[in-house]
Amino acid sequence: MVNPEIQRKRYPRTSPYLVGREKVREFGRAVYASPESLDLEVAKSLGHSDLVAPPTFPVVIQEQSLALVINDPDAQLDFSRVVHGEQRFLYQRPVLAGDLLTSELSVASVKTLAGNHMVTFETEIFDASNQLVCTAISTLVVRGE
Amino acid sequence: MQLSDLQIGQVVAEKTYQLNRDSLVRYAGASGDFNPIHYRDDIALAVGLPGVLAHGMLTMGLSVQPVVEWIKDSARIVDYGVRFTKPVVVPANSPAVVSVTATIAAIDQESSRARVDLTAICAEQTVLGKAQVWVQF
């Protein structure tokens, strides 16, 4: 299960993640993305400095923060029993190739429902100038024993 | 395309995607999510699943793409959220077909935003719930 005491716990800032242009293309091809994520000329014609990462790309950064929770003995999060329940992204701006991103996760809530735990994480993603780029909100369902 | 051109209930995009095992392996590599339930039948069955499943984040990722194609620039998406309601089972030898329909559900003149609701259907089941995209106009 998960330790309910981690509610409101804030995890440290992750190491910087450099969003590579080819990673954006690779992720873009995997989610059937539009040319703005694949073709530099198209991205530039829309006024962007580089390829635009698909809307769900911030999940890659969220995972960096989630790894801290999984490796935190205090959280007691049994990942083998985890199912992804909900996911949401609030965007200040799109992620672009070349961005250097860090993230900070906090545990928004831990609820118990029908013998399962529902844990909601809020991960704020910042760029190299420490401006908020996106907030990723993820609810995991930890199935009961 | 302007906010004033939109009407509640208007279907703005529709697209069908065929997911096979190659699609899941490609997403695993691109995203770094190597959970074996997304490519190994024996492990998926051992943990009580009906079969190998598509990553929820793959379904979420492709379901917004018809909207991106419609608005041309995903920078105008300000909010995107989904609930994962049913798994997408991907057999080893035939594709899973996911059909996405994007419909205007709300128009907010004050913020100049429209909410586009997505329905994603696979094997006659709705696989995403409360799938909502807010677009800035």
SSE layout and pairing:
The complex is a heterodimer of chains A (145) and B (137).
Chain A: E1 17-18, H1 21-30, H2 40-45, H3 58-70, E2 82-91, E3 100-113, E4 116-126, E5 132-142
Antiparallel strand pairs in A: 1-3, 2-5, 3-4, 4-5
Chain B: E1 11-19, H1 21-31, H2 41-46, H3 56-63, H4 65-71, E2 77-84, E3 96-108, E4 113-122, E5 125-126, E6 128-136
Antiparallel strand pairs in B: 1-3, 2-6, 3-4, 4-5, 4-6
List keywords for this structure.
heterodimer; A: 145 residues; alpha+beta; 3 helices; 20% helix; elongated; B: 137 residues; 6-stranded antiparallel beta sheet; 4 helices
Report on the architecture of this protein.
The complex is a heterodimer of chains A (about 140) and B (about 140). Chain A is about 20% helix and about 35% strand. Chain A has helices at about 20-30, 40-45, 60-70; strands at about 15-20, 80-90, 100-115, 115-125, 130-140. The radius of gyration of chain A is 17 Å and the shape is elongated. Chain A starts with 16 loop residues before the first strand and ends with a strand. The model of chain A has no long low-confidence stretch (mean pLDDT about 95). With about 140 residues, chain B is an alpha+beta fold. The termini of chain B are close together. The model of chain B has no long low-confidence stretch (mean pLDDT about 95). The interface of A and B includes residues 59 and 83 of A. Strand 2 of chain A pairs antiparallel with strand 2 (about 75-85) of chain B, so a sheet runs across the interface.
Write a concise synopsis of the structure shown.
The complex is a heterodimer of chains A (145) and B (137). Chain A is α+β, with helices and mostly antiparallel strands. Chain A contains three helices and five strands.
